[in-house]
Amino acid sequence: MNVFRILGDVSHLLAMVILLVKIWRSKSCAGISGKSQILFALVFTSRYLDLLTNFISIYNTVMKVVFLLCAYVTVYLIYGKFRKTFDSENDSFRLEFLLVPVIGLSFLENYSFTPTEILWTFSIYLESVAILPQLFMISKTGEAETITTHYLFFLGLYRALYLANWIWRYHTENFYDQIAVVSGVVQTIFYCDFFYLYITKVLKGKKLSLP
Amino acid sequence: DQEPQGHDEL
Description:
The complex is a heterodimer of chains A (211) and B (10). Chain A has eight helices and two strands; from the N terminus they run H-H-H-H-H-H-E-H-H-E. Chain A has helices at residues 3-26, 34-47, 58-81, 96-108, 115-129, 132-141, 146-173, 178-200; strands spanning 143-144, 208-209. A two-stranded antiparallel sheet of chain A has the order 1-2. Chain A is globular, with a radius of gyration of 17 Å. Helix content of chain B is 0%, strand content 0%. The mean pLDDT of chain B is 72. The A-B interface holds A 5, 9, 12, 50, 54, 56, 60, 63-64, 67, 111-112, 117, 120, 162, 165, 175-180 and B 1-10.
C-alpha cells in the first residue's frame, strides 16, 4: 500500500459520498446519468466477487463493501426514491455501444481464461468507459451543477492517482498490471477536457457551461 | 501474459 493508492481510494470514496449528499440534500438527481451509475454498480459487482473468497486485508474488505453499498444506494435513489427528478430524456447514451466491445475485449485480452479473471477484466475495461454516459449527458445539456463537477473531479482524480500508484509500485516492487494500467490511462484521458473546464471555470467560481 | 492472480487493488 502506498500514499497514492490511499489518496486514490479516499478520492474515490469522496466522489461517491459527494454524489450521495447531492442527491439526498437536493432531493433530486437532475443532471446525473443513471446509466453511468448502473455501470459503476456493475463494475463493483463484477470486480468484488472475491469479497468472500479472497481475503486480502480488513481495509480491502471494508472498502469493497462500502463501495458496493454506495453504488447500489445511488442507483436506488436515482431509479427509486427520486425517479421523478431523473432526467431520462438526456440520459440517452446507448449502453450496448459500451457493453458489447467491453465484453468482447474481456474475452479476448485477459490474464487467464477463468470466470473470475474474465469478470475482473470486464470490470476494469467497463470502468474505463463507465463515465461516458455522464459526460455525454453534460455535453447534451450544456451545463452541470457545481456539486456534480466536484463529484466528477474526485472521480477522475482517483484513477489519475492510481496511475501514480502503478508507477510507484513498478519502481518499488516491480509490479506491472498491464490491463489495469492501459485501461486506467484511457479512463483518465476521458476526463482531460472536463479537468480543463473544471480548473479554468469551476475553480474560478464560474458555473460549468459548455460553449 | 501472466500477471498476479488475486488482484489486491480496489
